[in-house]
Amino acid sequence: MKGPALSLACLLLLPAAGNAAKKEPPAPTLSEEHQNPAKTLSFRTPPGWKVTTTEGQPEVTEARGDGLILRILRREGEQGLDSLHVECMLVRLAGPMDTQPGVDYEYDFVQSGIGERRAMDSAFTVTYDAPIDGHTEWRQRNLTVVGGGESVCVIAHAPKSVWKKSKAARNLLTAIVGSIGF
């Protein structure tokens, strides 16, 4: 990796669900470290999460566990932030013919930056025709980062009912996304 390590944790100051007045569950233990095939980024998960990788264009790394799904799509080179973000927002758990038209946005196109990298963040609910892992409504968060010679989309999926009711699940998925380092 070139240059100093950079973590997405500082981007997590962007909009997120939560209420500071409520008691926080204990921080999740992220003891397993993983890398993408190009070895340009790493992230951590709890034990027992299944992580698979596929080299190609784009390179895809997927982590699954505790009913949550994280996908990291990476491309060599710096692509247009807006266009890549929109493309990655269309990366769903099922194809367009198996997805209800339209989405319910929590927030959309929030921009930020970390050093030489630019970022864009969106969160929304997607409804699928058939249940996926027992759920038809899924919250999808897309965090797109461009800079440092690469373009990365971090796509976090959680069943909407789990996201709304389980602070532990929200904290876990947020911690995994925050553990991503370049």
Main β-sheet: number of strands, strand sense, barrel status? 7 strands, antiparallel
CATH architecture: 3-Layer(aba) Sandwich
As for the number of domains, it is 1
Q: Would you give the CATH topology?
A: Protein Transport Mog1p, Chain A
Spatial order of strands in the largest sheet: 3-4-5-9-8-7-6
How much helix is in the residues?
A: 10-25%
Briefly, what CATH class?
Alpha Beta
What structural class do the secondary elements suggest?
A: mainly beta
Shape: globular
Describe this entry's structure for a reader.
The protein has 182 residues and is mostly beta strands. The protein has one domain: Mog1/PsbP, alpha/beta/alpha sandwich (Protein Transport Mog1p, Chain A), CATH 3.40.1000.10. 15% of the residues lie in helices and 43% in strands. It contains three helices and nine strands, in the order βββββαββββαα. The strands form two sheets. The protein has a seven-stranded antiparallel sheet with strand order 3-4-5-9-8-7-6. A hairpin with a 2-residue loop joins β8 (135-147) and β9. The protein starts with 31 loop residues before the first strand and ends with a helix. The model is unreliable at 13-20 (pLDDT under 50).
